[in-house]
């Protein structure tokens, strides 16, 4: 008898839900075996057009002005002259850094001014052994 009462409650709940909103379709899935679905669970399905229309954006901002109005300067990007000058400055800075590193490497790669004689035969008449 309790099963019959819960089935009647489920049917009346589904009917109430269907009558309250004509744009949505309801489906009673309380008999489905799943851990997340409890008794008297009803899933509402909206029309695809209505569901997709929720994400449409307005063309007006909060003040009622057009969102796509002109930029203050009248341009959306830098002028060709400004782009060329910026590119030239970057090239000059990179070239100067490369030239500076080359000069620094050449300066640090110099041998010492005087090399001390350290071989065992230096300062004597003894000849070094021949290479085989």
Summarize the structure in words.
This protein has 132 residues and is mostly helical. It contains three helices and two strands. Strands 1-2 form a two-stranded antiparallel ribbon. The relative contact order is 0.06.
- Proportion of residues in helical segments: 40-55%
Summarize the helix and strand pattern as letters: HEEHH
Total helical elements: 3
Which stretches of 5+ consecutive residues score pLDDT under 50? 12-21
The pLDDT mean sits at 77
Task: Furnish the topology, listing elements before pairings.
Blueprint: H1 2-20, E1 24-28, E2 42-46, H2 48-53, H3 80-108
Antiparallel strand pairs: 1-2
Keywords:
132 residues; two-stranded antiparallel sheet; mainly alpha
A few lines on this structure:
This protein has 132 residues and is mainly α.
């Amino acid at each position: 008898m309790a099963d019959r009462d819960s089935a009647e409650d489920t049917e009346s709940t589904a009917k109430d839900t269907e009558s309250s909103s004509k744009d949505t379709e309801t489906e009673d899935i309380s008999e489905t075996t799943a851990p997340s679905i409890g008794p008297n669970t009803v899933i509402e399905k909206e029309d695809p057009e209505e569901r997709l229309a929720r994400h449409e954006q307005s063309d007006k901002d909060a003040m009622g002005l057009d969102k796509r109005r002109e930029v203050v300067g009248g341009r959306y990007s830098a002028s060709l002259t400004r782009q060329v000058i910026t590119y030239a400055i970057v090239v000059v800075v990179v070239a100067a850094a490369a030239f500076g590193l080359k000069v620094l490497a050449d300066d640090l790669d110099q041998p010492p001014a005087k090399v001390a004689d350290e071989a065992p035969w230096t300062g004597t008449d003894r000849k070094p052994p021949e290479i085989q």
